[in-house]
Amino acid sequence: SKSPSPRPNVPVRYFIMKSSNLQNIDISQQKGIWSTTPSNERKLNRAFWESSMVYLIFSVQGSGHFQGFARMASEIGCEKSQDWGSAGFGGVFKVEWICKESIPFQFAHHLLNPWNDNKRVQ
Fold first, then answer.
1. pLDDT band at 95 (very low <50, low <70, confident <90, very high)
2. What is each CA distance from 26 to 22, 59, 67, 92, in whole angstroms?
3. Model's pTM, two decimal places?
């Protein structure tokens, strides 16, 4: 298991995690786990191993809010969870929730993503 302490001179990475419903985020906040689509797994695992810290910012699609953010606390493994049913998710990984408050996108409109044509982060 990876040490949770940051490594110097290695960038911190941030990812917006979109969920189709609030129930998935509630499960994650209660159990400290998350699962994503297989297409995202390689990118997140690479960030986990190459970065000092990986933060996941959660938002339910169409909500107009961020529902909080967490630190990625383990790599994504092969084990799957029945908590999300059979929605096409990949392996489960641990997350440590830092903030569980709902924040409107308008509070973050000053944040722009340089890797997405400087569009607003939402």
1. very high
2. 6, 12, 10, 15
3. 0.82
